[in-house]
Design goal:
This protein has 322 residues and is of the alpha+beta class. It is built from four helices and 23 strands. The chain has three domains: 75 residues; 148 residues, Type Iii Antifreeze Protein Isoform Hplc 12 (Alpha-Beta Complex); 59 residues, SH3 type barrels (Roll).
Length: 322
């Protein structure tokens, strides 16, 4: 009897101990159990199908991996599922996963072949060239281009179907077909216009009066033709050797009045006066009474005779009298 009672007390103590451990460490025990059989969440999944499956979200699913969760994002688009949504999915499918924090997310990306704007513009430029449009121009669309997304196995190509161009107003209307004309998966009508482009020489660095422009000081910018003013300087060769009339910044279109010939003679400086009469040539020292650039006529004083004469500037400190 005493032995039976002792055994009963030992068994009762063990059951109470298990109960205490279960109550106290139940959540931890469940975590250990869950960790042993848990599925892990993917950070990023790229799918090609039009539906999302459980296996797209979780790693290590031995079952229910093919269970459809819902529709996939459009080709080329992304979808983000937060921790709350993922928890609902896991509970609904009885999956061994629970979020460790409310910050857990998964990014679902639908694979696709995306045709960018550069590819579309290149196709339209070829069509415009075939219509006889020459020179440099920019394509401006009336509305934002739609996203051309194709299944991932398709080529990244686009073709122009019906195409109309109005040379008077420089407007066009085109039907875009992707990925080819014979079996297009996408059709889209686009409209727009072309803007003629003019290349303008500009300074590549700020220059001030007295600094002569060299080829190394020049750069190029493109602007629409309708913004070009009549006095803009378009020939880079004509700029070399000139100097800004005043401080001129880089990257700005240059006007005729912005530049002048650099001063080769300054008032009060000594000059060499050359007299030419037929084959006779004489030189004497003089003094400039005016500032002047190459080719300009200024007044100078002949220091030998103290006479004032008009002379043409030929170079730095050099003038001539004919």
């Amino acid at each position: 009897m005493m032995l039976s009672l002792l055994r009963y007390m030992r068994l009762s103590f063990l059951l109470q101990s298990v109960l205490i451990v279960t109550v106290t460490f139940g959540s931890f025990g469940m975590s250990l159990l869950r960790a042993a059989t848990a599925a892990s969440l993917k950070n990023l999944t790229i799918i090609e199908d039009n539906v999302i499956r459980a296996g797209d979200l979780f790693e290590g699913l031995s079952r229910k991996a093919d269970t459809v969760i819902g529709p996939a994002p459009l080709p080329g688009h992304d979808m983000t599922l937060n921790a709350r949504t993922l928890l609902r999915i896991a509970v609904a499918l009885d999956l061994p996963w629970r979020p460790e924090s409310g910050a857990e997310t998964i990014l679902i990306r639908r694979a696709a072949t995306l045709i960018d704007q550069n590819t579309i513009e290149a196709a339209l430029q070829n069509a415009l060239h075939e219509k006889g449009v020459a020179g440099d121009f920019k394509i401006v669309f009336n509305e934002a281009l739609p996203v051309f997304s194709l299944p991932p196995q398709e080529d990244k190509t686009i073709h122009v179907g019906t195409f109309d161009f109005d040379p008077v107003h420089s407007t066009f209307s085109a039907e875009l077909l992707a990925p080819n004309k014979d079996t297009p998966l996408k059709r889209q009508l686009v409209q727009g216009r072309i803007e003629r482009i003019v290349h303008l020489p500009v300074l590549s660095r700020p220059l001030q009066n007295g600094q002569e422009i060299t080829k190394a000081d020049l750069d190029w910018i493109d602007i629409p033709a309708y913004k070009v003013q009549p006095d803009y300087l378009l020939d880079a060769d004509l700029l070399v050797g000139l100097t800004p009339r005043r401080m001129t910044m880089a990257g700005e279109p240059l006007r005729r009045n912005d530049l002048i010939e650099p001063l080769l003679v300054k008032r009060g400086e000594s000059v060499l006066i050359t007299y030419r009469t037929g084959a006779l040539q004489l030189s004497t020292e003089g003094k400039a009474l005016q500032n002047g650039a190459r080719g300009e006529a200024i007044r100078v004083m002949n220091l030998g005779s103290n006479q004032t004469v008009n002379a043409q500037i030929e170079g730095t400190g050099q003038v001539s009298v004919n």
